[in-house]
Amino acid sequence: MSGFHASLRAWALGLCALALQGTAQATLPIAHWSLASGAQVYLIHSPTIPMVDVQIDFDAGARRDPADQSGLANLTASSTAYGVRAQGGSPALDENALSDAWADLGASFGGSAGADRMSFSLRSLTEPAVLAKAVALAARQLGTPSYPEAPWLRDRPKLVASLKEANTRPATLAARAFSRAVYGEHPYGYESTEASLGRISVADMQRLHALSLRACNARLSIVGALERAQAERVAQALLALLPAGPCTPAAAVPEVAPLAAAHEERIAFASAQAHVLVGQPGVKRSTPDFFALTVGNHILGGGGFTARLTEEVREKRGLTYSVYSAFAPGLHAGAFTIGLQTRPDQADEALALVRQVLAQFVEQGPSPAELQAAKDNLVGGFALRLDSNRKLLDNLVNIAWNQLPLDYLETWGAQVERLTPADIRTAFARALQPQKMVTVVLGAQ
Amino acid sequence: MHCLKRRAWALVLLLAAGVAAAQDTSTKSYTLANGMRLIVRPDHRAPTAVHMLWVRVGSMDEVDGVSGVAHVLEHMMFKGTPTVKAGDFSRRVAALGGRENAFTSKDYTGYFQQIPADRLEQVMRLEADRFAHNQWSDEEFRKELEVVKEERRLRTEDSPRARLSEALYAVAYTASSYRRPIVGWMNDLEALQPDDARAFYRRWYTPANAAVVVAGDVEPDAVYALAQKIYGDLSGPAVPERKPRQEPPQGGLRRLDFKAPAEQASVTLAFKIPSLAGAALQGPPDAASQDALALTVLAAVLSGYDNARLDRTLTQGPDPVADSAGAHCGLGDRGPALCMLFGVPATGKTAAQVEAALRAQVGLLAREGVAEAELQRVKNQWVASEVYQQDSVFNQARILGTHWAAGLPLDADALLIARLRAITAQQVQDVAARYFGDDELTVATLLPQPVDKNRKPRTATPGLRH
Fold first, then answer.
1. N or C terminus: fewer CB in 10 A for chain A?
2. Which CATH number covers residue A436?
3. In angstroms, what separates the C-alpha of B262 from chain A's closest C-alpha?
């Protein structure tokens, strides 16, 4: 599938879901309940295919990494694959026995951490014999990983080598410079380095696991061919080996500081393309402007071939293959980013154009026709956001993690439909200050 | 729009309540009077559909000097017809609530729209219009050619491993057109003329060389009726003769080194192997096809799941030789197949050591064979993946289109899994012994160079800009 006409880019606001006007009277088919431990469970029963997807999220993402141990949360999650302790009558499994067991089941389980969340994902067939084994094994990998030292010491140099390799690539170098400038000291800007990985031990992983992964903190999202009663048993079983509690509130993480002044960085680099990034700290997921910014960004640079940035930079002038804008709303103000790549001698022309399009959009907002086109696409195409178990899971996780109302999907369309051009203009004016943005240009000539 | 919103809502209720209508999900195939194929796969889980138009033409159908033209034409298909001006195709699909894109490979070119199912007729009309009447100015072509050159810079020029792979194909093949990159050589792009793309379009975009694939919340016979109305009257020339350009026997090891700014070396061993014949899936398989199937099983035994043989032996242990390693064997493409073994040396190890370790693993399979448990593990994965892949309507359509392009039967996927499940440990051991010698082998090594930030970029710059 090489040679795609354009990158199939994730929709700019990440996991947020689109829905239709709240005309339907039906109750949303999302079941939600709490386990005795306090764990929150969300279920969408999707019966057609004999399979199930489960995602388990914890407030244990990289934003809580110690400044000198960047990467700890992600490694704590992913290193559960190194093996599990003996449990009940079952013997301990090393990394190979564990991966063989998953392969034998035709199921998969794995962990990772983003800035906010530590997440574990299970996919299994729902054939009872397989599902029971998969859930039991997932519970062990989630609850009683063995964190052996040898594989971590073996793999750490591989990670360092791949970091060094990434640091020879223009896209990585530009993104890192941009992240440092936008986030300053905030953990959202932490990057793993040889030094930070060198300070992480399996004891640190074990400690973070014990401290953060408690059943009372877990949010489970389940989509698949499971009835409520079956899902209840699966949820219980998955968390059975985690400590139930206590769940005391973790220390607050500071907010991302706004930028005091514009900042421009020019980095010399010999590559076939210059990389241009423009942006600033954006918004939190909880902003009341969420819908206005979502739809506005769709018009500015998030909506495929028809977005303004694509029209101006690519379609009219042939300056780039890919240009985009995106918000990254999280528990803190994730970056607003505009990005593109172009031939080194065109970087300044493209940068000037992007700045002009952005300034004009922030000042004037969208035209009524642009807004109507965005509504037609987003609301009209709503069903495309829910037409697989995988997509349903993303929506369910969004609701579970952000504690959105269970009728969130029901009311989303109405929230989009009632936006006016003025709503979007004022939301962008609140969120963005084009005169105080970070600019990174790497490899211009 | 209101009707649409209600339909979208019904989706959630359907999935939720478990009231999935009794459905016949068997794939139906039709041939229109003009030779165009129609393939329909109903999937009524959601009120959406994907509509794809496939053309059996890709970079392998190009000739020297105009490499990349199939892909450039794919871009130009978004640039208008006498009744739809440049950019309006995308605007109209967006207004229907749709998403769209296109793709070009060595073997085929495809265009798709994902839409609410009740918008199928509208996107069919748009697609049929550009299939038959694509038209644009030289000026539009020159602008879009710059976009394609940026795409090549992004995906290839600045990616050492992509350039290594490009160089590998160029050395492994001499007669076969698989030796050229899909995106085209940069100098060919610089020299490409609007009429090159127009001629390619007129030659290959003919109904008898195309298939429409529709998957989703649709009824096959209703789609057939629509397709007859919308695509059935299109006419075009006969499909041009295709020169086979068969690759002659290699007759000896080929090696290439490729230098690029990087930290890590990498090495790829590419062995020429037989392809699967389409007929082998329906009748009794011929010997070469059996070997192709056994080689696919072999690759899965080597690296088809986490910590399979190559991981375990090359990247684990107290003194691992590689940071990563893998194997992949081609199977059902239009052109010739390669079986690739590849790895990234660990710090302090050399590409030569990784090459030796990869070959030692194949040697071990040839000598000692494969354990039944390993074989079963690989087969279990395929069985499960057959279920998981039903989750994506888009993927179902893509697989059907790929099989059509390769001349395989519609149910190739199920037949393929059945054939693979029948492969024995003895067959895997046999092909390990027979296909991994030197005579049909090309070895490509990436030699990392220091990154010099002030070096002039290696690509020619403003010279040919329009």
1. N
2. 3.30.830.10
3. 6
Residue B244: DSSP 8-state: -
Residue B24: the pLDDT is 64
Question: Whole-angstrom Cα distance, residue A375 to residue B198?
Answer: 36
Contacts of B453 in chain A (CB under 8 A): 268-270
- Of chain A, the end-to-end C-alpha distance in Å amounts to 32
- The ipTM value here is 0.92
CB contact under 8 A, B307 and A99: yes
Q: B254-449 in CATH: which number?
A: 3.30.830.10
3-state secondary structure of B95: helix
Low-confidence ranges of chain B (pLDDT < 50): 1-22, 458-466
Q: Is the full-model pTM beyond 0.90?
A: yes
B28-31 sheet: strands from edge to edge = B28-31, B37-42, B210-216, B48-55, B109-116, B99-104
Query: What are B138-181's pLDDT values in tens digits?
Result: 999 999 999 999 999 999 999 999 999 999 999 999 999 999 99
With CA atoms as reference, the chain B residue closest to A383 would be: B8
Angle between helices A290-297 and A368-380 (to 10 degrees): 100
Is position B74 annotated as part of the catalytic site?
yes
Residue of B nearest to A45 (CA): B16
Q: Are residues A191 and A60 in the same domain?
A: yes
CATH class of B25-230: alpha beta
CB A272 within 8 A of CB B458: yes
Asked if A176 and A281 sit in the same domain, the reply is no
d(CA B234, CA B127): 12
**Does one domain contain both A148 and A111?**
yes
Q: Cβ neighbours of residue A163 under 8 Å, at least 6 residues apart?
A: A192, A193, A194, A197
Q: State the burial class of residue B83 (Cβ atoms within 10 Å of its Cβ: 0-12, 13-18, 19+).
A: exposed
The per-residue b/e assignment along A97-108, b for 16 or more CB within 10 angstroms, e otherwise, is: ebbbbbbbbbbb
Is A267 in the same domain as A196? no
- A16 part of a folded domain: no
- Domains contained in chain A, number: 2
Rounded to whole angstroms, the Cα distance separating A391 from A397 reads 10
Cβ atoms of B6 and A23 closer than 8 Å: yes
| Spatial distance between the Cα atoms of B21 and B445, rounded to a whole number of angstroms | 55
Angle at A250 between CA A245 and CA A253, to 5 degrees: 160
Contacts of A45 in chain B (CB under 8 A): 15-18
> Per residue in A423-432, pLDDT tens?
999 999 999 9
Contact B296, B420 (CB under 8 A): yes
